Protein: Two-component system, OmpR family, response regulator ChvI
Organism: Belnapia rosea
Amino acid sequence: MPATIALVDDDRNILTSVSMTLEQEGFTVRTYTDGESALQGLLARPADLAVLDIKMPRMDGMELLQRLRQRSAMPVVFLTSKDEEVDELMGLRLGADDYITKPFSQRLLLERIRALLRRNEASRAEGSGTPAGGVIVRGDLVLDETKHTCLWKGTDIQLTVTEFLLVKALALRPGMVKNRDQLIDAAYGENIYVDDRTIDSHVKRVRKKFRQADDDFAQIETLYGIGYRYKES
């Protein structure tokens, strides 16, 4: 079955041109011109991935992402303008997996979509170096790749695809420092350029989610100027 992509943008020219490109590549595409209709449509019929504009009528992309994240870990790509750096960071903190700056190359968007879909599929399968059964146990942390679930002290932690892959990369080698380039490769794949601040924003959000379940969570350590490591409890 072809993957279904949801495009949400109030610019009909973008919807038309991007839809044509994606459909030519074999994707099924559903389009929405505002956040409210997109929310209703995606809750009724989930997609495999969503591409969201930030500035839209009725409900902007930020609120739409927040609402979606209450129900879904579906991969999300944000479309931002060059002067919206704050929005990019906020979007990542709210749970976006990636962002692309307008004006953008449709080929670049296609590459990012394919990379996210591959990561989503890979995160649900047994990966290289993963113990039999696709389950990683590190003290109070339990990551199940086949079910895409994360438990901390028995509490379910809802992670996006990117967040799950970051935690997995750190937890696979407790005590080993991973620099940002290594984490970018683990979460995004090779040959995908992502700014360092993207990883930092994802890590901050991951920590926030764990601390909502456990105020004392301190397993993901920052080594300033170097990277991050997982400290096994």
